[in-house]
Design a protein that fits this description.
Blueprint (H helix, E strand, L loop, with lengths): L7 E6 L4 E8 L3 E9 L11 H23 L8 E7 L3 H18 L3 E5 H7 L12 E6 L4 E8 L2 E7 L5 H11 L6 H9 L31 H17 L2 H31 L3 E5 L6 H11 L4 E3 L3 H4 L3 H13 L19 E2 L4
Parallel strand pairs: 1-4, 4-5, 6-9, 8-11, 9-10
Antiparallel strand pairs: 1-2, 2-3, 6-7, 7-8
Helix pairs in contact: 1-2, 3-10, 4-5, 4-6, 4-7, 5-7, 6-7, 7-8
The structure holds 5'-O-[(R)-(carboxyoxy)(hydroxy)phosphoryl]adenosine and zinc ion.
The site of 5'-O-[(R)-(carboxyoxy)(hydroxy)phosphoryl]adenosine (KG4) has 19 residues, from helix 4 and helix 5.
């Protein structure tokens, strides 16, 4: 309910295929939150950028209106606005950024550009105030796979990243191969539940015992080889005529391989940084098997923070939360600020720096 400490922040997310708005009161009180997932992409088996931008344009007013109504806050009571400025699909990003820029100008209020992956980093703190740095963060979404050591909000050291497909992209591509709908992650997770992960052995790319800290591949990920191994397995099962009955086992074997790599690399980071606090963010962190394996392998000495599925996937509340942090540091948009598909992650120190 309205009436908290404020400020009231309106957060808007339109970087991919969710149109979402939220009103945040203070640091973590979500007064209103609407997430509209676009369904126009289902028939294409993936997000079509031009359709995503048009769908955002059609729905953005209604989504914001509903979030404000839920919050009981009028637009002119909003203290500042935050919007995902990148990375993402440029046409989709521009819808949100132009909407926020124009609205902020009309209201005479500031606005804050937000990095989409930093917003994912903040999501767990909306539900658990202990989800604060220091932590090792694994950010796994449809477009990114990042392993980060965060020593404070805004101070991030990049440990590893994917060299090809993102983790979520791998789930989506394997789902498509198995004839499952988009988005593939939830469909793979459901199908895996009735499969035997050990029936087919798939490779664990970039995971070898002889890697040492300092080697670039010690923390990096690669998922395209795993996807190719699934392609070959599916073809041979097809040739044998057993693909239909083997589908759950293939899904389970893929999920187990992807999770093994993600958890093993995160554990390497826990050990090397001596930081037993782990945070999962991004759409793939909605995967229960991933969270359970991390918790089991970390043991009772570690802490694992993650969001509920609603806040793990793209949403406006995490954007509002990240905007609040950047606003407090005075990082208000200048008149020439805009969207960028390759928006740099603020505060991220590269490995060579
Ligand atoms: O963070 P997100 O909502 O959007 C991006 O920033 O990309 O992540 C979407 C990705 C998709 O690739 C989707 O298949 C994956 O997250 N995903 C999952 C699960 N739920 C969503 N992957 C594995 N298991 C899930 N339960
Ligand atoms: Zn995302």
């Amino acid at each position: 309910m309205k009436g908290g400490p404020g400020p009231y922040v309106l957060g808007l997310e339109t970087s991919c295929d969710e149109t979402s708005a939220a009103v945040l009161d203070g640091d973590h009180c979500i007064l209103g939150h609407v997430i509209l997932s676009q369904d126009v992409h289902e028939v294409y088996g993936g997000v079509v950028p031009e359709l995503a931008a048009r769908a955002h344009l059609q729905k953005v007013d209604a989504v914001v209106d509903q979030a404000l109504a839920e919050a009981g806050v009028r637009l002119d009571e909003v203290d500042f606005l935050g919007v995902t400025a990148g990375p993402g699909l440029i046409g989709a990003l521009l819808v949100g950024v132009c909407w926020v820029k124009a609205t902020a100008y009309g209201l005479g209020r500031p606005w804050v550009p937000v990095h989409h992956m930093e917003a994912h980093l903040f999501a767990p703190s909306l539900e658990d105030q202990k989800a604060e740095p220091p932590f090792v963060a694994l950010l796994v979404s449809g477009g990114h796979t990042l392993l980060i050591h965060a020593t404070a909000w805004g101070v991030y050291r990049l440990l590893g990243a994917t060299r090809d497909d993102a983790a979520g992209e791998a789930f989506d591509k394997v789902a498509k191969l198995l004839g499952l709908p988009y988005p593939g992650g939830p469909a793979i997770e459901r199908l895996s539940a009735s499969g035997d992960p050990k029936r087919h052995l798939l490779p664990r790319p970039m995971l070898a015992r002889n890697q040492r800290p300092g080697d670039a591949d010690f923390y990096d990920f690669s998922f395209s080889g795993l996807k190719t191994a699934v392609v070959q397995l599916v073809r041979s099962l097809e040739a044998e005529g057993t693909l239909d009955s083997e589908r759950p086992h293939v899904a389970a074997a893929f999920q187990a391989a992807a999770i093994d790599v993600l958890v093993s690399k995160t554990l390497r980071a826990v050990e090397e940084t001596d930081c037993p606090r782990v945070l999962f963010g991004g759409g793939v962190s909605a995967n229960k098997a991933l969270r359970e394996e991390m918790a089991a392998r970390m043991g009772s000495g570690g802490e694992l923070f993650h969001s509920s599925p609603r806040l793990a996937l793209d949403n406006g509340a995490m954007v509002a939360r990240a905007a609040r942090f950047r606003f407090d540091r005075g990082e208000i948009a200048t008149p020439d600020a805009s969207a960028s598909a390759a928006y740099p992650f603020p505060g991220l120190l590269s490995r060579v720096a």
